[in-house]
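Lecture notes, continued. The same structure-token format from the folding unit now serves as the input rather than the output. Read the line below as a description of shape only.
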């Protein structure tokens, strides 16, 4: 039986310092060297996780940006992307503009990410306009012509940070646009609300099913700690959560492991594989 093991990063494989411990690194690399099909599924962009994973010899493609991408870490290549068609993308831009808002728009072009935004003031939103993004993306710049940017690549994501009162009217308009899904949530780190918009085909569930098929895997084993991991837990043959996971997740999974600061995932894999 060919088993595919897939772990969330933040709060699961990463410890509370958002790093992989030396112990977990050693265990994972030995498992992979001995043939384990192991990878990650995360809400992060490629440039937000690949440098954190450089100590792991990932040979199996990963799932990034909550299922938007299936990504080859070794080749730095997007094997699959769930994108938003041009007409729908312009409807999303219009939803922001009707509420007097600009936004961040992410475009995949020539196997690289470009980020465009309509107001220089948005550069203060470092959740999106970050040093790491500036280093790794093909292009990050202000634009007064979203339409031209849309025509030059494949749009896959929109985002904006603000207050709940500012963003709720935008969300209400976007909810009426076919082909996209959106999420409005409180960022616990800066206490601001984030509105994120992506293809309605993008999910960890859909990406996992596609990856499982690509690899010819028979069994799916997943690890997660939070609500965005629910879709992959629901389709897993076996599922596990660290002790620090939210209660609802711990009640869903097959077994609860040690917490992320005590290498729960790695200890399980070591016992499972060697």
């Amino acid at each position: 039986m060919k088993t595919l093991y897939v772990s969330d990063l933040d709060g699961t494989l990463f410890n509370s310092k958002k790093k992989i411990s030396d112990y977990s690194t050693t265990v994972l690399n030995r498992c992979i060297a001995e043939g384990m099909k192991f990878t990650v599924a995360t809400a992060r962009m490629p440039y937000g996780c690949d440098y954190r994973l450089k100590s792991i010899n990932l040979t199996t493609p990963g799932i990034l940006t909550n299922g938007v991408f299936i990504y080859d870490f070794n080749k730095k290549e997007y094997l699959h992307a769930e994108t938003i068609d041009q007409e729908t993308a312009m409807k999303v831009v219009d939803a922001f503009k009707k509420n007097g808002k600009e936004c961040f728009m992410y475009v995949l072009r020539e196997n690289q990410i470009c980020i465009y935004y309509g107001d220089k003031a948005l550069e203060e939103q470092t959740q999106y306009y970050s040093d790491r993004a500036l280093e790794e993306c093909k292009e990050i710049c202000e634009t007064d012509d979203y339409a031209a940017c849309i025509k030059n690549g494949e749009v896959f994501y929109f985002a904006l940070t603000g207050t709940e009162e500012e963003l709720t009217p935008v969300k209400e308009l976007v909810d009426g646009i076919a082909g996209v899904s959106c999420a409005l949530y409180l960022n616990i780190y800066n206490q601001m609300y984030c509105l994120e918009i992506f293809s309605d085909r993008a999910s960890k569930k859909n990406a996992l099913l596609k990856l499982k098929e690509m690899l010819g895997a028979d069994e799916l084993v997943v690890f997660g700690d939070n609500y965005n991991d629910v879709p992959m837990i629901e389709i897993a043959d076996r599922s596990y959560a660290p002790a620090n996971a939210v209660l609802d997740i711990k009640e869903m999974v097959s077994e609860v492991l040690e917490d992320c600061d005590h290498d729960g995932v790695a200890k399980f894999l070591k016992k499972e594989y060697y």
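Point for the exam: The longest strand covers residues 154-162.
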